[in-house]
Amino acid sequence: MTNKITILAGDGIGPEVTEWGLKVLQYIGERFGCDFVFDQGLIGHCAIEATGDPLPTETLVKCQSSKAVLLGAVGHPSYDYDPSKTIRPEQGLLRIRKALGLYTNIRPIKIFDELIGASSLKPEILKGADILFFRELTGGIYFGERGISPDQLRAYDTMEYNRFEIERITERAFEAAMKRNKKLHSVDKANVLDTSRLWRDVVQEMSKKYPEVEVIHMYVDNAAMQLIRDPRQFDVVLTANMFGDILTDEASQISGSLGMLPSASVGKEVGLFEPIHGSAPDITGQNIANPLATILSSALLLDIAFDMKDEADCIIKAVDDVLKDGFRTRDIADSTTPKSMIIGTDEIGTEVMQALEVRLNQAVVI
Ligand code: IPM
Ligand code: MG
Q: What does the pLDDT read at residue 83?
């Protein structure tokens, strides 16, 4: 088994936040003698600039020989208003997901009590919300046949799902539901889409294997509304690629900020871990980005790829300690946060490292 972890910092704030994710991993590695070997590679806009390719073969090869990949973000504003560009940073991300067979994207949505005030939702609605999203990641409309006519008058994207693609992620979602509150919402648009009707059929079929799990089928438009009306009704949510993309950005408000959410993409041997936020070009290089989602992604990486649950919990608790001490980056501050407690990327990263050290020194058995 390899202990290699490849860091793909990517674009925008990616390098600023992965620096802290890496520091946490290095620290845990040294402390517990894990012999992690770190490597790095290019992806996204920076890779296009350097090689013309958003996912150079060299990067992919490094990732394929790793146990886990920690990714920052990809994207660059120069593409936003130029749809004619055919080579785009995001293709790097989509291709690596496909190449590594990362068909399950797991996005845990949980509110840290201290951040209840930072959300735009009412505290009484949020308190206790704890949702685990399973977003299908290598199929659906993201990967279907697409095209644009030469006269630019017509364009199309197609959504396609095979039974086996739905089955393999559904199984993972049921397994997770069994370990949690035995409740699974499968979100689709079966009143309109054939792919959703197939999705529903597969989930129904597989639910027979898990009679203890309560299964609720919900249309995606309703789910978007229910998520902010009463997020506590959800436990495990299973959904297709694009629905999951949209719903998890919405659900980030349940955790206070997009800057707090980690994610894990798994499937075959290699796991990829990344914050769900984007490259945030508007705040790049200013030392104000929130590195906590990446630090929490490092925790997920240890938990899922290396089975180091205690160490992962320790990182999550260290993040909590820093929040309890009152430190905030700009995105998670609210009107009650004193100005002196609103600190930068490097400062909050340093606070987490210190809190982690304190926790590990206190821990009797870990
Ligand atoms: C995400 C992102 C990506 C996606 C983009 C950058 C291609 O929004 O990981 O949620 O849509 O999957
Ligand atoms: Mg997204």
A: 80
Q: How far is the CA of 273 from the centre of ligand 2 (A)?
A: 14
CB 143 within 8 A of CB 306: no
Q: Which residues are CB-neighbours of 241 under 8 A, at least 6 positions away?
A: 135, 136, 137, 138, 139, 140, 141, 142, 143
Domain count, the chain: 2
Is the shortest distance between the CB of 93 and ligand 1 below 6 Å? yes
Instruction: Determine if the pTM surpasses 0.85.
Output: yes
- Give the ligand 1 atom nearest the CA of 274: 9
Ligand nearest the Cα of residue 12 is 1
pLDDT at position 364 over 60: no
Closest-lying ligand 1 atom to the alpha carbon of residue 74: 6
pLDDT category at 85 given cuts 50, 70, 90 is confident
Residue with tokens 């009704």: 233
Full residue range of the structural domain in which residue 18 is found: 1-110+261-366
Q: What is the CATH number of the domain that holds 13?
A: 3.40.718.10
Q: What is the DSSP string of 300-336?
A: HHHHHHH--HHHHHHHHHHHHHHHHTT-B-GGG--TT
The set of catalytic residues is 142, 189, 221, 245, 249
Query: For 100-151, what is each residue's pLDDT tens digit?
Result: 999 999 999 988 889 988 888 999 999 999 999 999 999 999 999 999 999 9
Cβ pair 11, 76 in contact under 8 A: yes
User: Of 210, 230, 255, which marks where a domain is finished?
Assistant: 255
Q: Whose CA is nearest to atom 11 of ligand 1?
A: 245
From first CA to last CA, the distance across the chain in angstroms is 23
pLDDT at 366: 46
Better-scored residue on pLDDT, 256 or 70: 70
Best probe residue, ligand 1, of 69, 107, 245 (max atoms within 8 Å of C-beta): 245
Q: Is residue 272 part of a domain?
A: yes
Q: Which residues surround ligand 2, an ion (CB under 5 A)?
A: 245
